[in-house]
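ERR on first pass: missing label on line 2. Operator R.T. fixed the label and resubmitted. Corrected input:
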Amino acid sequence: TQLLEQSPQFLSIQEGENLTVYCNSSSVFSSLQWYRQEPGEGPVLLVTVVTGGEVKKLKRLTFQFGDARKDSSLHITAAQPGDTGLYLCAAAGGSEKLVFGKGTKLTVNP
Amino acid sequence: GAGVSQSPRYKVAKRGQDVALRCDPISGHVSLFWYQQALGQGPEFLTYFQNEAQLDKSGLPSDRFFAERPEGSVSTLKIQRTQQEDSAVYLCASSAYRGEWDEQYFGPGTRLTVT
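pass 2 clean. output:
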């Protein structure tokens, strides 16, 4: 069973600061996905990375897939209170199911 | 529909009661998934359907958990003789099935509390 380790588990920052969240594993993935989940809602897909070394940008969010396709990072520039939420990385676990990390709970204070 | 819907949104059950949780996937989506999310954790896979066929139930924690999707659309997750450790949010997701990493769309979840 592949395991996804996310760090940090909790992150509380002030509006305007930058932050990076990490997702690591000893397994190689064909693809990796990042989700954001708000309280009382289901996870919403932010991005899928497929190619080793790939970098994708989504407004102030930058996603990177490691060259060996074993790790990924999410960087947020100039965080805003609306970025508050639980950030989850996930990978395909066979038969279409997803295996999720435990998540990083981000709080951005105004 | 516009998205995946789940009902009820909240359920309180006394230990030993049976519960049934419903999922309405996005219309036309072939694949349907159930996940369990404990407080402060990421979702964990329970079971997966492709149309009406249950292709993977390896994540169901015990034989008290049962899922069905008889007509290939709406699905029900049933938990018999609920225990306190069953308290969690139960998420349903659906996808159009176009490949291994096709996007899954999640519903808002049902929060089950067993007292």
